[in-house]
Structures are given as structure tokens and as C-alpha cells.
Amino acid sequence: MSIPHGLLALLDRGPMYGYQLRAEFEHTTGSTWPLNIGQVYSTLARLERDGQVSALDVDGEGRQRYQLTDLGRETVRTWWTRPITLGDRPRDELAIKLALAAATPDLDVRSVVQAQRTSTMQRLQELTRLKRDGEGDDLAWTLVLDNLRFMAEAELRWLDHCELTLTRVRPATASRPTTVPAPTKETAR
């Protein structure tokens, strides 16, 4: 999602000022994509320049509110009906990292995969806890949380696939058995 589309979608609810847009955006998305107020105001300036929003009079507290123009409303309607494609999403750093790791000689790719698996598993456990603790509180947050959980589960399945592929293509070299050193007098105490 682009920030301009997110702000236009929020303004479709009614006029808002910058801090209000930022708070609504973060509340609705569960702060999964934090915005700084500078991004909000620079985006509003571009949207106003492009005729998507117009500034209203400054209120008694000195706040500038913005509203959608007809062009902005049309942009939001089009955005709601247009599917998001993979090309609209940012690059997947993990896929790039594993591709680079697989192409790097003498690098233990399995350890890279395992480090990611551990991190993703911890994240999935945290998301599951958040889901259990906040069940039914906020529909928008619940949908965002479900998306994050499903993505973490999909990532774990993909990491399993990567490990299986590595096993077939690059069999592990025989590893030395792990031996636990016999306790010494100092460690036995």
C-alpha cells in the first residue's frame, strides 16, 4: 500500500488534519507501518498539488484540515477495486538474502535458514499471543494481525522448502559428532 492511498482512504471518511491522519492510520493498521508526521504532511502537500485533496480553513487551534476532492474520491474508488499485484510490493529482502547465501561459496546456508526460522518462529508465537489477548477487540487490527500470522506461517513453510532443496542440491558435509567435554573439578562444583 502506498502512503498516498492510505491517506486518501482515511480522508474518504471525512476531513482530518495531519496528526489525526497519522493516529488513524496507525490505529487502523495496528502500527505495523509507522508513519512519521513529516511523511504525512509531505504526502498531503503532494496530494494537494495533484488536486487529490484540498486544504480547509485553519481551525481555532491552528490545525489545517484536509478533505478529498472529486479526483481524490475517484482515486480511492479505483484503488479499492484494483487488486494488488506482487509488482506493487517492495522487494523481499529475505528471498534476496537466501539467494545470495546460496550463491556464496563456503557459506553455511543452512545456518542462515535456521537463524531465520528461529526468528520467524518467535515472531509467530508473539503474534499468536497478541491474537489470543485481543480477540474480537478491533476488526481492522484483527485482520492485520491475521495477515501477519499467515505470512509468518507461509515463511516457515518456505524455509522448510529451502532446507529440503539445500539437502538435495548441497548435501551437508559429514559433521563431527558433538562431544560434551567431561566436567573438570572446577566445572563439576
Automatic annotation (TrEMBL):
Locate the Transcription regulator PadR C-terminal domain: which residues? Answer: 91-165
**Pfam families recorded for this chain?**
PadR, Vir_act_alpha_C
Provide the Transcription regulator PadR N-terminal domain boundaries.
7-76
Family matches, as SUPFAM superfamilies: Winged helix' DNA-binding domain
InterPro entries on file: Tscrpt_reg_PadR_C, Tscrpt_reg_PadR_N, WH-like_DNA-bd_sf, WH_DNA-bd_sf
Tell me which domain of life the UniProt entry assigns to the organism this sequence originates from.
Answer: Bacteria
Please report the name of this protein according to its UniProt entry.
Answer: PadR family transcriptional regulator
Q: Which species is the source of this protein?
A: Nocardioides plantarum
Q: What is the lineage of its organism?
A: Bacteria, Bacillati, Actinomycetota, Actinomycetes, Propionibacteriales
